[in-house]
Structures are given as C-alpha cells and as structure tokens.
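pinging the channel bc i need a second pair of eyes. not urgent but kinda urgent?? the chain im working w is below, pasted from the shared doc
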Amino acid sequence: MSQALEDIVVVDLSGTVSTTYCAKLFADYGATVVNVEPSAGFPTRGLAPLLDTHGGGSAMHAYLNANKHSVCVDQLSPAALAALLARADLVLHDGTVDQVHAASLTMHISWYGSTGPYAEYVGSDALCFALNGMLRTIGHAEGPPLIPTGYQAQMVGGMTAFIGAMAQVLARTLRTDLAALHFETSIFESMLCFTEVGTIGFYNTGLEGHRMGINRFPPTYPLGVFPCKDGWIGLTVLTPSQWHTFCVLLDMPQFSQVALFQTAVGRLEAADMLEPLIAEKLLTLSAEELFYRAQNAAVPLARVPTMEELFQVDQFVQRQAFAEVEVDGGRKVMAPTIAFRLFSTPPRLGGVVAALGAHTSLYQSEGASSGE
C-alpha cells in the first residue's frame, strides 16, 4: 500500500526527544526523515535505557529513529546542506542551530518558547510537571511528591508540534505560493493540557488542595493501581451503578447500598476504612479474570501488565501495539508502534535504525536525491 506522507521530506537538525518524536510521526507514515547529526551523533543516541552496558546503544534512540536517514553534517558541504534544507517540506530544530534560514517551513521546539517569563529557564520533564501543577497530587501525603521518570513532557511537545507542522505541510501541498513560515512550540505550554483542575480551581478561588496519598485522587474513589493475586489492576469506579457492580465483583455486597458510598466523594471520605477491605479482596483474585469480568459488567477496570507480560497482552498483540526495531549490528528490540492508525495508508510498524552517517553519501552533492 502507499503511505500517507511518502512524498514529504523532513529534516531534523537538533535530535532532541521532542524533535525526534515529532519527526518519528512523519516517518511512521512514510515521510523521508533526514537526521543531520554532529560527529558525536544526536543526544538521543546516549539516552537511557541502554540496550546493554557494552556500547549496545540507546533503546530510546532506537524507538524514536526507525526508518530515518542519518547524515553527518561535518561531511556535507555548505551547498549540499543548503540544498537539503531548501527542498525539505519541514525543518525541525531546538533553537540552537543557525542553518534554518535556508528552509521555508521550520518548527522550533523548546522547553519554554523563545519569549516570555520562562524563556531563559533550563527545562526538564520534571520541571514541566511541577510548573503545571501535576506533581502536587502524586505521592505520599507526607514528604515531597513523586516525580515521574522518562521523557513524557518532551514527547507531548513533539506531538503538539507535529499537529501544527502537519497542518502547514498539508497546506503547502495544496498551495505552492505560501510565504516562508517559522513557528515554534513550547513543551511547557503543551503540557498545560494535562493541568489538574485543582490548579485552575486554586487560581480562581484561592482554595488549596492537599495530597491525600497513594491511590488517592480526589474526587474519584476508588481510583488507582492495586496488586492482585497475580498481577495488577487499575480501578476507576465512579457512578453508583459501577460501585454496585464493583462490590459484587469483589464479593462485598454489604457496601453497595450504603448511602455514603453512592458518590465518589462519599467513598473517598471513608477511604481509610474501605481501602484495606478492597486491597484484601483484590489479593484473592486474578487480575486478568477480574478485568474480563469487569468488562462484561461495564465497570472500567484496566489490566496493568508487568514489563515481562507486556508483549503477551492479547489486545496489544491484536492491535500490533509493539513491533521489532532493528539496531546497528542486527540486534532487534521490541518498541511501541504509532498510537493512531490510518487504514487505507497504514503506518510503518517497526523498522531499521540507521547507524550514524549511514546515508551521508546520498546528500553529499548539491541537489542529491532524497531516495532510499
């Protein structure tokens, strides 16, 4: 089948998690993505998790860079680089490069944008979580909040940039007379879409919320991830009918009709009494069996697989949620596939990660072809 973006050329000049994730979404749908890397490679090549301790490379880089070209910028002439940028449909960068003037459409992805009160701040995923209020409700009631690990904020920034960039790329396939456009995405502002409602409530009312502890996320209760006899289950019990059915599933029907427990807020008030009982019942049940029983009863419980179980979850297998990515040397690892799918022009699932500079020869001369 043809691919939706097979005629699009995207150039990544910076190789941050945000720019590479944005470019990955283009590559997954067939675009030719060219990583213009320094002699040491993009920063993502050194990101944890690593495939092994003996120079096996970065699993994160592998996930982000399947099916892309790798070019060493030090081996390109200025004319060749300018020609590549000039014919690119989109150039991605983080604001630290100066070659973008040759491109007609650029996306600058930075932590806080180039203007505003935070423009000069040093950014991180944790800071974005903290500044948008999400950390406040996560963790034990006493002590500091728990800080999520990984690169979620940067990936949200890359996704947000993709949405805006995709609109402009499509516009230019319809009209060729559009003026050059240079625009930007703030990772922090992108993360504001996840801001807890309590933050907005405090801004408007001055009423301050408090962290209530693990698996306590007001106003819904029970809500969280709990251990079972084998595995883990995610609970979200909100409506009275869900609570009634949940009590039956856990063989504790005596609580289903208690007046206080007909609302999530009422159940939260009694969490210190309810939670030990719920936790004790869950430890007698199989997470997988409970999940399917709850699905059939219209209660939104979620099976939470361990890392060892992840690739065997039936719905993940059916949906091809993971695919093999081949890294330098032929080693293959499993990586997530794209979350949204077109069917007439399906995305690439998995692929090969280029070694540093593997495609430099394709772009060494001015006007070189961008073919495979």
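so The first helix runs from residue 17 to 28. and The CA atoms of residues 292 and 301 lie 9 Å apart. — does that match what u expected or am i reading it wrong
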